[in-house]
Amino acid sequence: MTEAGWTKLGLLAGGGDLPLEILKAQAGKPVFVIALRGFADRDYSHADTVSKSVGEIGGMIKALRAAGCDAVCFAGYVTRPDIKSLKMDARGLIMVPRALAAGRKGDDAVIRVVVDEFERAGFAVVGADSLIGQGGLPAGVIGDPGLVEAHRDDVTKAMSVAAEIGRLDIGQGAVVAGGIVLAVEAQEGTNGMLERVAGLPDVLRGRPGDRMGVLAKRPKPIQERRVDLPTIGVDTVERCARAGLAGIVLEVDGALIVDRDGVEAALAEHDLFVLVEAVR
Description:
- The protein has helices spanning 18-25, 57-66, 90-103, 107-120, 128-131, 145-150, 152-167, 189-198, 202-205, 234-242, 260-270; strands spanning 9-13, 31-36, 48-52, 71-75, 124-125, 140-142, 173-177, 180-184, 206-207, 210-211, 214-217, 231-232, 247-251, 256-257, 273-277.
- 38% of the residues lie in helices and 21% in strands.
- By secondary structure, it is an alpha/beta fold.
């Protein structure tokens, strides 16, 4: 065993760039990838990889054991699937009643059921933040600090709204511009929410050269932080830019930034900021 208590990582890869960021950070170390069918949207052909449906829990566990894994990391976005059309194995079917019961409480309750299943199978569940060297996101500003104060009221309100929808287990993100709540994140995820904002009239959301409003993302109070921390990357910045927003605000130790160099370049190109601040 290593000092971390495990020897080989199994990476359950959903959509987006975070799984690739983890592979990059773990270069030279043994990693086995399970690409979640219908969600994984990046190329993992360079890694030791199999493809599984999110309902093939038993198949995943068997593959992880065969690969010699004793730890798993859940990375990348996965939306709630249609159980009726989902390919499932025996272990997945056994989990359905628990998952359905948990689903009535919210997405985080479902996540805890899945995490518990892998822990009961003997795997350590490892947070993506520790694997990419972001064990704690510090306070600070990426971009022009002067822009933050110009949008301070929207920052405060957006973080408050994000906290409230998190308390209700609705989502992690909210967009506020000029004191108006333009959108909150629900089942469509952050990308879908930002697309809705981009479709609003310019007078509500701003435009290049006259940006207004912010996207706030923060963990839910009951968040399983090893699995579903709020994450932003270059694509998030680009979507915020298209929506006419001025910045993004995150919680200290409560988010991941994928491709930090790329994010900084995109912020500079579009004249946006990222604020990371402590919250009560």
